[in-house]
Amino acid sequence: MQKVLTAIAHRLRQEPGLRFPFLVPKNRDGTYAYLLTTALMGVALFIRLAIAPVSAGLQYLTFFPSVTLSAIFGGYKSGLLATAIGLVLATVIFTPPYYSFSIEGFHLSFWSNMVFLMDGVIVSLSIEAMHRFRLKFKDQLDEAKKSEGQMKKLNEELENQIARRKQSDKELTEQEVFFRLIAENVEDFIAVLDLDGRRIYNSPSYARLFGDVEALKGTDSFAEIHPDDRERVRKVFNDALQCGTGQRSEYRFQLPNDGICYMESSSGLIKNSQGEPKSVVVVSHDVTQRRMAEQKIREFAFYDALTQLPNRRLLDDRLEHAIAACKRGGRYGAVLFLDLDNFKPLNDKYGHKAGDLFLVEVAHRLAGCVREVDTVARFGGDEFVVVLSELAGDKSACAAEARIVAEKIRVALMAPYLLNRNPTGTGQTITHQNVGASTGIALFSKEASAEDILKWADKAMYRAKESGRNQISFHEAGS
């Protein structure tokens, strides 16, 4: 029953308010509500006077609906005000003697007025109670609707987050497949290492170096690096952990077959969602072929192609270093300029191939007569230069040591030569002897340039040839 009354009150209040919003007071206890009440009672009085004579006694039929409407639109105060107005109008207008107030008229209308008064009070308070219940229910309903709206909004946001997460997972899966395809099909070597340098992942290309890639998981990535390069590479790895990116580095790998592979690597740091280091990616490239090509280029630039001895360009550099070392240490050095004797008859008789074999053997014997710190170079044709660095003692002692080396070389070059023109060893063996070298020696310390020293040694060599060949001659100051 209470729900039905509440629904009726709500409907009576809402429907006219929706259709005629100017009738509904914004403040139910305000002046506008009281004016509306007065207007409703005036309309009720007009209707009562219009439908029946004053003596007909139908005033409650029109006054009571006005009291109800006043209570609905203005609240219980408006309902009580309408009740009071109805009592006054009924007593003054509709109770004889008409249009006058008397004790007799009041007595005649007392009980009917009491009934109207009680009805007005009951209706006003009942409608007010229904209003308040409706408002309370409305507040709860609004709160429920608000909570429902918030819940709906949260659900929508959650659905959006789930959709974004699914999209991110999909994109991540696609990227993982994409990068795995790259890693498994490139020629470069891709490795993922933990923060201690242990292997987490190695691309299939590592099988070319170590065979089974799966066996590499969890192993130390520094173990196969050449011992001379290991600490430098470890430092580059630690720098990558500190800075996020590692410097490009080149190092040597020791392969299972005891071979050496030159690698060039660059690294980058992978971080987790909190920005903390998680792992390191290392991308390496095999540069062995490049290093071999660079070595050949260097050999072509600084070494004689036939004898593999330093050429004139490298000789100049080595001689400059020897001069600088003598200046620092206050010592002497020596240059031996050699020109082979009886080389032309060999070329004329057996040809240039035999001559080349002879020059290679000469280079080998020269290298065996000096220290590792000394330099043996092919100056050109059948001319060779030996640089003796930082000889011990004073000038005379250094000259004596240089003569000993020159004599050792002279004896070594005079030994017979057995030259096989066929590399397989099945060809004719050529015996050539009575070969020596005219040697000129120039001592130096700090007062001469490399060009002057070579000129001095060259002049001394020509004096040795003029003295009968296979001789040793020293450069003399002023000559």
Write the layout of secondary structure elements.
Blueprint: H1 2-19, H2 31-51, H3 59-74, H4 76-92, H5 103-108, H6 110-185, E1 189-193, E2 199-202, H7 207-210, H8 227-243, E3 249-254, E4 260-271, E5 277-286, H9 288-302, H10 312-329, E6 332-340, H11 344-350, H12 352-367, E7 375-380, E8 383-391, H13 395-414, E9 417-420, E10 429-432, E11 437-444, H14 450-466, E12 472-474
Parallel strand pairs: 11-12
Antiparallel strand pairs: 1-2, 1-5, 3-4, 4-5, 6-8, 6-11, 7-8, 9-10
Helix pairs in contact: 1-6, 2-3, 2-4, 3-4, 3-6, 4-6, 11-12
Question: Could you list some keywords that capture this structure?
Answer:
alpha+beta, 17% strand, 5-stranded antiparallel sheet, rod-shaped, 5-stranded mixed sheet, Alpha-Beta Plaits, 479 residues, 3 domains, Beta-Lactamase, 14 helices
Overview of the structural elements:
The chain is α+β, with helices and mostly antiparallel strands and 479 residues long. The protein folds into three domains: 2-150, no CATH class; 186-292, PAS domain (Beta-Lactamase), CATH 3.30.450.20; 303-474, Reverse transcriptase/Diguanylate cyclase domain (Alpha-Beta Plaits), CATH 3.30.70.270. Helices cover 56% and strands 17% of the residues.
